[in-house]
Design a protein that fits this description.
By secondary structure, this protein is mostly helical. The chain has one domain. Helix 3 packs antiparallel against helix 4.
């Protein structure tokens, strides 16, 4: 096991992925010119996930995908949110975070069955 990689048991929330982009994604949703900018947030989360996968930080990619899926759910983009959520679950499985996988499957079971 690579000791330089975080494990599912590590503290922290992974908010500093790819130069802070997941955090920037959340900020873009609630700020910017007096209005919400979810498309900018989606872009930041997707960029963060790609960068994290490229660097083999699957736990960061999973978090970014999960956050993007939640924004898509909020935007009522059902098909896209389901696909992104499935990607997040696959990444969490790859990381070995089975409790998180179970939580997402339970919390989003209706969406995942569409």
């Amino acid at each position: 096991m690579d000791t330089n990689r975080a494990s599912p048991d590590d503290e922290g929330n992974g908010e500093n992925v790819e130069e802070g982009r997941p955090l920037a994604g959340r900020v873009a949703v609630v700020t910017g010119g007096g209005g919400r900018k979810p498309e900018l947030a989606h872009s930041f989360y997707e960029q963060a996930a790609r960068g994290a996968v490229a660097q083999d930080f699957v736990h960061h990619a999973a978090i970014a995908k999960e956050r993007r899926a939640l924004l898509l759910i909020e935007s009522r983009r059902t098909t896209e949110s389901r696909d992104v959520l499935k990607q997040a679950i696959q990444l969490y499985e790859r990381w070995g975070a089975q409790p998180k996988v179970a939580q997402l499957r339970a919390d989003c079971s209706a969406l995942l069955q569409l």
